[in-house]
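chain below, 372 aa
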Amino acid sequence: MRTIFEHHKLVTAILLWVDCIIIRGSEESTASVAFISKVKELTFMCNTGHRLHILKTFYGYSYSNHSSFEMGDCILSYTKRLSCVGRRSCSVKLPSGTTGPWIPTCKKHSSYFQVEYTCVSESSIVDICTTRVLTSMQRGYITTPNYPDEYQANKNCNLTISVEVGQRINLQAIDMSLQDNHGCVDYLYLDDTHRTHTLCGDRNNMNIFESFINILKLQFKSNGDNVMGRGVWLYFKATPTLTSPAPPRPTKRSTTPLRKTTTQRGSTRHTSRYPSPTLTTHKTITNRPTDRKRVKNPFNLKGTVKVTKTESQLVSSREGKAFPAAEIIGGVLGTLLLILIALIGLLIRRRNDRFLCIRAEANTSKIMEAST
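prediction:
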């Protein structure tokens, strides 16, 4: 029979998996064609109820005459926006010759053109003017009303994205076309309470903002003049990616006394004004001394509980050991005393030798006088 913690983890994993499937839609796809072929138009499409998100477009040269990218190919990015972004189908006209543009890195004319894309379900795209708050999504798509056709005039829409504490929000403009004839009259305004950013004009597959905290406010504003733009299609993602959250702490407490031990488990703290982009988990902290032993874990958690000796045990263990400094001092004093005794004996011996020498000289002098 499952415990409440196991059910909690299972439900969370299922929700994260479903969220990933809804947001991503189908897997990333590739469409490519060789210039040498008779086909001079690259066509691809999504299923009904999906929109094209163009991830990457480029020219390539294949050393093995392939019509799509392989490791070792040299490529040249195609930076222009495809008009089919945000729509269901796409058709790209190719050069009429048997080769494409020149690629400087390998000094070759390109031999194929490739598009990497994904199909996004329309049900997963949020309208910035109909939704006020997003709190349960780690990633998602946001558009202005009527995208990819012209947006509406006299709009003032606000949306707030909120993710888990400790995370940041990366915002990418998949497609942006806002009128800017007289400055940013129609604009997208971003605010994370630490800084603001106002955007207008045209952008394509560009990272436009990274929040300092886990909250980001968006405002879309259009005036009453003639509208000449598609609006915006945004993609946001919370970083770092969350793993399965830990279950709530058990409330059962151990009856085993633990002395001189302080522990701190599983807490998340942010002391900086600007949180770190990684989630921080404080490790267990245990007071010294270092004499420890393993005991049975009363909370049935991973790891071990560490217990230190009591004060009486520490005092008794210290009394049984000699103080090392006293031993060193005693040894030094004993050595100095022996050296002093040896010096005194040497001085006495030299004095006696000198006295004997003086007596021998005197005796010698008397003998020589007597002989003369």
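Confidence is low (pLDDT under 50) at residues 4-26, 254-311, 314-322. Helices lie at 4-24, 311-319, 324-371.
thats it, cya
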